[in-house]
């Protein structure tokens, strides 16, 4: 069975069909130093158009979701394109928080033109410092002292007159007045001399009563005098306070007038300055007091009087040095990082805060511009996604504590005024998360109307190839790498096609390309080369694979030692080599596996052993179930199939998924049914449908290279190879080693469209086509399978004939069930039993279940045991 002499020789692929060879002559420039570096992104026309459209539309809800796998350049492109648009837009306003004198727990948010926020903060600090120096001078002036002394003297004179009058009344009634810490006290006089309480008690009763009555009258006069003195004191204080206000106004009016004139175009700022002026006038004592001594605990912030914090300005957003609209990239989109927060300080065992400790979030900094966030990071942080939707819905940002979001008592009662927000949000994530949000959140589509979908590959063309070269040039110049010769660039393009698994496409996973560029430059440097050549690129790729191939090598060692049974020569009935892929993070390799099939008469159909023990996935189970449909479609024998076939992946100890081995399972089953051996030097991959068409599968390059590595390890015989679907030929971008082995005739690769083509290659026997009578020739694979299936159904029908199935005999012992007819039948006998057409067979035979047949056999065994005395 030499494949070169067989009629299916045309199915074997040539070396030119197995890989891509990109001509370096199609690239401009001899080296990357001679070409212009790439600016922008290549191969993403759909995503670029969507991004540009989303950035131009300024209506609410037209935020952007950038979807695509990691490594396609989404983040780099997002930063570049957003910054380009942002530079053409106006710089947004500054935002500050100031003290609210009417409601201290609700700080006021003020917007100012760019740069004026920091100017207002400086002006207020300078105002406080100026008033600290100016106010004491005004209160130390002679004019102020004279007016204040006059008020004090007037008060003292009026109050002294009232005291003198009270003393006169007391003397007239025989008492004297004395000042005490609590007011005035009356002392009785006898013969003009004050007496003590003991002396008062020795006085005659009539005199004591007269003195007590006089004392009451004196107290009435003294109380009236005290009331009038207090009224005079209050009046004097008010006059002094009015005087101080006038002095304070004279000290504050000039600098405040200058500030109000400076900010006259901003009414809300002017209103704030007027409130500051009123508060300073009312709190002028804080400016004129002398410096206090340092507190005994200097680490505790001085509170109470002389606290000028309320006059400060909290500069929340400063766009003074901005060029265009802001672009904020939030790497950790927590609730606080997005929407701002209140910081706290520890004072005397308590956590306190004020409006100066309000900190801006990413939305504040991006207000009037753009915010870029990673979707996965956003969804990982509690309350961040809901908070972002609230901000987009309300058009404002509220600074709230996380404690309030959790429903616990907040540490501070500060509620800063919300800030209006106008921001374009660009979310970067995977396609899976995009569709998940569409499905799980009905509001997602309302706020993110633009999808920029990044592809993982692009067509090969001269334009894209030269853009690849310009990309390599940009990486080399940006990171100081050695220049690449155009043959090295061509090799990178070929590697890109291998990553895309398509000879007509290039991969857009530029992270993986950059890794090869870095490492090729490093190997060129290790050899002292001035240019990076194709050999350096080839070595970089080989070294990458070598670093990750330890597990693959261990597996090949087990195959070589025979601990895992896989034959690569000889022939076996019902046994074939299948190919599966093992993925280990960023590395994948092929795993050759022996697949076996066994058949017998029965009614169980095709049984997947992996499914029975729950070691296979649903897609693999579907692929096996398709085999039954294929047999019924391909071999209409005119009666129900009487087949019990089992398929097994030998030495499989983990779950298997996918239908790429369904064609191999079909070939093993056909071999078992036809009795024809399969060449063990050939491995198979590809899925099959019910019509027998071989369908494309993934990972075809790795599968071929994995079986080639096993054959090379055990010894190449020239009769080994792999059968792949014809649809996968365009995906073949194999290693040079495999291509050279095919060129030398030491390895073969066939591409098939149907199962008939595959089984012909594997067995060396033609599959066969039905003749005019609808039957397959006897010397073909399909003819043998048909004959076997028909004989199985006939035997099953004969076992179900007549009364023995319903009423088995109980004696005598010499009777036994009729012996089955040997299989397969002779052609003449088979032809006599064949139906005249392809429709259902008519005849005396009846179909029985497996359980009924077993019950019938058990009864016969019981009869035989009784007959021999067992």
Walk me through the structure.
This protein is α/β, with parallel strands linked by helices and about 850 residues long. Among the domains are: about 5-45 and about 455-550, Helicase, Ruva Protein, domain 3; about 135-290; about 570-870, Ribosomal Protein S5, domain 2 (2-Layer Sandwich). It has 29 helices and 30 strands. The strands form ten sheets. It has a seven-stranded mixed beta sheet. It has a five-stranded parallel beta sheet with strand order 8-13-16-1-17. A hairpin with a 2-residue loop joins strand 4 and strand 5. Helix 4 (about 140-170) packs antiparallel against helix 6, helix 17 (about 485-500) packs parallel to helix 19 and helix 23 (about 660-675) crosses helix 27 (about 780-800). The longest helix is centred in the first third of the chain and has 58 residues, at about 205-260. It is elongated.
Features:
870 residues, alpha/beta, Helicase, Ruva Protein, domain 3, Ribosomal Protein S5, domain 2, 7-stranded mixed beta sheet, 5-stranded parallel beta sheet, 29 helices, 46% helix, elongated
Quick gist of this model?
The chain is an alpha/beta fold and 870 residues long.
Strand order of the largest sheet: 23-24-22-21-26-29-30
CATH C-level class of the domain at 571-870: Alpha Beta
Strand content: 5-15%
Count of helical regions: 29
Q: For the CA atoms, what is the radius of gyration? A: 49 Å
Q: Give the quaternary arrangement of the chains.
A: single chain
Give the N-terminus to C-terminus distance in angstroms: 54 Å
Q: Which geometry do the CA atoms define?
A: elongated
CATH fold descriptor of the domain at 571-870: Ribosomal Protein S5, domain 2
Structural class: alpha/beta
Fraction of residues in H or I helices: 40-55%
CATH architecture of the domain at 571-870: 2-Layer Sandwich
Ranges where pLDDT stays below 50 over 5 or more residues in a row are 1-5, 290-305, 801-851
- Number of E strands: 30
The biggest beta sheet reads: 7 strands, mixed
| Mean pLDDT reading | 82
């Amino acid at each position: 069975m030499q494949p070169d002499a067989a009629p299916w020789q045309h199915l074997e692929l040539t070396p030119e069909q197995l890989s891509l060879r990109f001509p370096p002559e199609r690239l401009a420039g001899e080296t990357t130093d001679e070409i212009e570096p790439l600016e922008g992104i290549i191969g993403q026309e759909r995503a670029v158009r969507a991004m540009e459209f989303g950035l131009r539309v300024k209506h609410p809800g037209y935020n952007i979701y950038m979807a695509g796998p990691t490594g396609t350049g989404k983040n780099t492109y997002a930063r570049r394109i957003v910054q380009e648009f942002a530079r053409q837009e106006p710089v947004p306003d500054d935002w500050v928080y100031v003290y609210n004198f009417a409601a201290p727990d609700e700080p006021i948010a003020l917007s100012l033109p760019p740069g004026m926020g920091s100017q207002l903060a400086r002006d207020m600090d300078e105002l406080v410092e100026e008033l600290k120096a100016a106010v004491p001078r005004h209160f130390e002036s002679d004019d102020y002292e004279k007016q204040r002394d006059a008020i004090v003297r007037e008060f003292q004179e009026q109050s002294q007159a009232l005291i003198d009058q009270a003393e006169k009344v007391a003397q007239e009634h025989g008492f004297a007045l004395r000042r005490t810490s609590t007011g005035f006290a009356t002392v009785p006089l006898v013969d003009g001399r004050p007496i003590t309480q003991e002396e008062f008690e020795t006085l005659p009763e009539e005199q004591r009563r007269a003195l007590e009555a006089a004392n009451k009258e004196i107290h009435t006069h003294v109380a009236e005098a005290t009331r009038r003195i207090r009224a005079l004191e209050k009046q004097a204080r008010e006059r002094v306070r009015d005087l101080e206000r006038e002095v304070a106004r004279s000290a504050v009016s000039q600098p405040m007038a200058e500030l109000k004139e400076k900010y006259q175009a901003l009414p809300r700022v002017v209103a704030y300055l007027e409130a500051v002026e009123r508060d300073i006038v009312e709190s002028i004592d804080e400016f004129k007091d002398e410096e206090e001594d340092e507190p005994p605990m200097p680490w505790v912030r001085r509170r109470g009087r002389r606290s000028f914090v309320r006059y400060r300005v909290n500069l929340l957003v400063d766009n003074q040095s901005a060029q265009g609209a802001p672009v904020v990239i939030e790497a950790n989109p927590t609730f606080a990082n997005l929407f701002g927060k209140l910081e706290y300080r520890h004072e005397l065992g308590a956590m306190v805060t004020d409006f100066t400790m309000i900190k801006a979030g990413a939305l504040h900094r991006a207000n009037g511009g753009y915010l870029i966030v990673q979707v996965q990071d956003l969804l990982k942080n509690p309350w961040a996604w809901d908070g972002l939707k609230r901000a987009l819905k309300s058009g404002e940002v509220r600074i709230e504590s996380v404690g309030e979001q959790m429903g616990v008592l907040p540490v501070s009662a500060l509620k800063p005024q919300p800030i209006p927000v106008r921001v374009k949000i660009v979310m970067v994530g995977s396609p899976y998360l995009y569709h998940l949000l569409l499905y799980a959140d009905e509001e997602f589509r309302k706020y993110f109307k633009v999808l920029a979908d990044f592809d993982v590959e692009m067509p090969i063309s001269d334009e894209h190839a030269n853009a690849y070269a310009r990309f390599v040039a940009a990486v080399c110049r940006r990171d100081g790498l050695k220049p690449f010769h155009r043959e090295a660039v061509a090799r990178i393009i070929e590697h890109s096609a291998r990553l895309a698994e398509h000879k007509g496409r290039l991969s857009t996973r530029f992270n993986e390309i950059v890794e090869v560029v870095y490492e090729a430059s490093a190997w060129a440097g290790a050899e002292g080369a001035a240019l990076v050549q194709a050999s350096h690129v080839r070595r970089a790729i080989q070294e990458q694979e070598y670093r990750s191939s330890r597990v693959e090598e261990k597996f090949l060692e087990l195959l070589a030692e025979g601990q895992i049974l896989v034959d690569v020569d000889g022939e076996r009935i019902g046994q074939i080599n299948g190919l599966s892929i093992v993925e280990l993070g960023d590395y994948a390799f092929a795993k050759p596996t022996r697949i076996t099939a066994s058949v017998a008469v029965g009614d169980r159909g095709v049984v997947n052993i992996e499914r029975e023990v729950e070691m296979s996935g649903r897609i693999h189970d579907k692929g096996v179930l398709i085999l039954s449909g294929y047999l019924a479609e391909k071999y209409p024998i005119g009666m129900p199939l009487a087949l019990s076939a089992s398929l097994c992946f030998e030495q499989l100890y983990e779950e298997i998924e996918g239908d790429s081995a369904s064609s191999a399972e079909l070939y093993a089953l056909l071999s078992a049914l036809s009795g024809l051996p399969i060449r063990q030097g050939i491995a198979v991959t590809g899925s099959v449908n019910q019509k027998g068409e071989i369908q494309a599968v993934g990972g075809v390059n790795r599968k071929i290279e994995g079986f080639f590595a096993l054959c090379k390890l055990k010894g190449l015989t020239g009769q080994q190879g792999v059968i792949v679907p014809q649809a996968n030929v365009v995906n073949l971008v194999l290693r040079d080693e495999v291509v050279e082995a095919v060129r030398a005739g030491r390895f073969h690769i066939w591409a098939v469209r149907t199962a008939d083509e595959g089984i012909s290659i594997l067995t060396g026997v033609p599959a066969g086509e039905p003749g005019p009578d609808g039957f397959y020739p006897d010397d073909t694979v399909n003819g043998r399978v048909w004959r076997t299936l028909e004989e199985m159904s006939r035997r099953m029908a004969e076992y179900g004939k007549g009364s023995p199935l319903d009423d088995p005999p109980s004696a005598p012992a010499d009777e036994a069930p009729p012996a089955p007819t040997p299989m397969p039948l002779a052609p003449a006998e088979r032809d006599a039993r064949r139906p005249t057409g392809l429709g259902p067979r008519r005849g005396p035979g009846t179909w029985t279940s497996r359980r009924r047949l077993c019950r019938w056999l058990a009864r016969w065994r019981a009869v035989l045991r009784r007959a021999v005395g067992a």
